[in-house]
UniProtKB/TrEMBL annotation:
The keyword ATP-binding applies. Residues 346-477 form the Mur ligase C-terminal domain. Gene3D superfamilies: Mur ligase, C-terminal domain (3.90.190.20), Mur-like, catalytic domain (3.40.1190.10), MurE/MurF, N-terminal domain (3.40.1390.10). It comes from Streptomyces olivaceus. Pathway: Cell wall biogenesis; peptidoglycan biosynthesis. UDP-N-acetyl-alpha-D-muramoyl-L-alanyl-D-glutamate binds at S42, T166, T167, S193, R201. It catalyses: UDP-N-acetyl-alpha-D-muramoyl-L-alanyl-D-glutamate + meso-2,6-diaminopimelate + ATP = UDP-N-acetyl-alpha-D-muramoyl-L-alanyl-gamma-D-glutamyl-meso-2,6-diaminopimelate + ADP + phosphate + H(+). This is UDP-N-acetylmuramoyl-L-alanyl-D-glutamate--2,6-diaminopimelate ligase. Residues 123-323 form the Mur ligase central domain. Catalyzes the addition of meso-diaminopimelic acid to the nucleotide precursor UDP-N-acetylmuramoyl-L-alanyl-D-glutamate (UMAG) in the biosynthesis of bacterial cell-wall peptidoglycan.
């Protein structure tokens, strides 16, 4: 059979249900069942699984206990509210007050604590997580067999698996670690989101190296404010979550984290701050990449190249090299491996159809990231800069006006359009973005255009491009669908941009 969700290990020993009950400190059910897997998704239950029936916003996972039983579940982990429904389904239950908070530790036990056998490097921050994870994985490949877990994809060796979210749920994450171990993987680079830290997705993980890139307003629909957001990220830099921190002190929150972290911290500065342990020097930013020298705490001088354009990617590259050095790799070997990374999907990804202008797609979907990308492209653009940008629906509404202002201020042509409007009216989102654009004084503002249809917006930007110009389509990056009114339609910025360029040439 084929099952939904990430892969599971092939060889797994059963864990007695009584042992799991003892771990939880609850009375063992009258059952001799052995558990060979765990999942929070009733559709993904396999014979021998422990089904984690969690309370949800609209329904309780225990409502699907009968379905789980039919698929061969051995038992259910649930809360008191779900216990009666589990009993009605005829399954033994492990009942705790907060099953989500115990799910990770049980998953680690069931799969034999696979993370202990992997070198784990976890990257958190607002911007740069995905790029840094790819760069770290590239450096690790010089010495080890690797895995990658993040927003774009999961990789086990050369096998690629589509990601559902930045950091998988604890049940899936521990299964992935187990598969990696089973296939001989030695090291994994992974993104760690604030949601993952708050919701327990990385419970039972202790990262060998935890990396902090930066912090700026994001996910304010989930966090109560920047302090709450910072505290969520700071959880990663405690002994329960990591052994060593690598922290960017060019960022104000990074400087604070370096002082407040309760694990040893190594600092880095792409701006060359003399107090940082590692810093970038002799930086030369080019249109496609950048070169620089890494200066280390013991007098190291490492020749480095960022395989991606922009000063912010110098910071991401430095973060990767420092984290690899902190993990015990030779810094120059690590830097060479990072430089050889062929690119990161949807991160300043070039679209080249032989046109006389530069065209890229980028995932920038928050104000700071948009500003950084546009500033970086401005430096390497001889002519004009044409930017396409939208804001997602059902997400942080506070960033829409600032993002509209940023693209209007830093681009010669700001084409405002839809991102993933989801359940919201696309025109209502655009109206707020347009307010932001209108707040920029006329003499500082580029020409602003508005298209509800994203493909039309991309075509409009391409139509304005002349030799020496740059077209950047921002916001969705690697995504291959567009969510409009609950329906996800195929849409890949890279392909739509490519087709628009081909039509313009024709």
């Amino acid at each position: 059979m084929t099952y939904p969700g990430p892969p599971r290990p092939v060889r797994i020993s059963a864990t007695p249900l009584a042992e799991l009950a003892d771990q939880l400190g609850v009375t063992a059910p009258d059952s001799s069942a052995g558990v060979t897997g765990i999942t929070h998704d009733s559709r993904a239950v396999r014979p021998g699984d422990l089904y984690a029936a969690l309370p949800g916003a609209r329904v309780h996972g225990a409502d699907f206990a009968t379905q789980a039983a039919g698929l061969g579940a051995a038992a259910v982990l649930t809360d008191p509210a779900g216990a009666e429904r589990v009993a009605a389904a005829g399954l033994p239950a492990l009942v705790v007050d907060d099953p989500r908070a115990r799910m990770g530790e049980l998953a680690a036990t069931i799969y034999g604590h696979p993370g202990r056998d992997l070198l784990q490097i976890g990257i958190t921050g607002t911007s740069g997580k995905t790029t840094t994870a790819y760069l770290v994985e590239g450096g690790l490949r010089t010495e080890k067999s690797t895995g990658l877990i993040g927003t774009v994809e999961m990789r086990i060796g050369d096998e690629r698996i589509k990601s559902e979210r930045t950091t998988p749920e604890a049940t899936d994450l521990q299964a992935l670690f187990s598969v990696m171990r089973e296939r001989g993987t030695e090291a994994v680079a992974m993104e760690v989101s604030s949601h993952a830290l708050v919701l327990g997705r990385v419970d039972a993980c202790v990262f060998d190296v935890a990396v902090f890139t930066n912090l700026s307003p994001e996910h304010m629909e989930f966090h109560s404010g920047m302090e709450d957001y910072f505290q969520a990220k700071a959880q990663l830099f405690t002994p329960a979550r990591s052994r060593l921190g690598v922290v960017n002190v060019d960022d104000e929150y990074g400087r604070r984290l370096a002082k407040e972290a309760t694990v040893p911290v190594v600092t880095y500065s792409a701006e060359g701050h003399p107090d940082a342990d590692w810093r970038a020097d002799e930086v030369e930013v080019g249109p496609l990449d950048s070169t620089f020298t890494v200066l280390g705490p013991k007098g190291e001088r490492i020749a480095a190249k960022s395989p991606l354009a922009g000063p912010f990617n110098v910071a991401n590259t430095l973060a990767a090299i420092v984290s690899l050095a902190a993990a015990g790799l030779d810094p120059q070997t690590a830097a060479d491996g990072v430089a050889a990374v062929p690119g990161v999907p949807g991160r300043l990804e070039r679209v080249d159809e032989g046109q006389p202008f530069f065209a890229v797609v980028d995932y920038a979907h928050k104000t700071d990231a948009v500003e950084s990308v546009l500033r970086a492209l401005r430096k390497v653009t001889e002519g004009k800069l044409h930017a396409v940008l939208g804001c997602g629906g059902d997400r942080d509404t506070t960033k829409r006006e600032p993002m509209g202002a940023a693209v209007a201020r830093f681009a010669d042509t700001a084409v405002l359009t839809s991102d993933n409007p989801r359940s919201e009216d696309p025109l209502a989102i655009l109206a707020v973005m347009l307010q932001g654009a209108a707040s920029v004084p006329a003499h500082e503002r580029g020409e602003v255009q508005v298209f509800e249809d994203r493909a039309a917006a991309i075509a409009a930007a391409v139509a304005r491009a002349e030799p020496g110009d740059t077209v950047v389509v921002a916001g969705k990056g690697h995504e291959q669908g567009q969510d409009i009114a609950g329906v996800v339609r195929p849409f890949d910025d890279r392909e739509v941009l490519r087709e628009a360029i081909q039509r313009s040439k024709a």
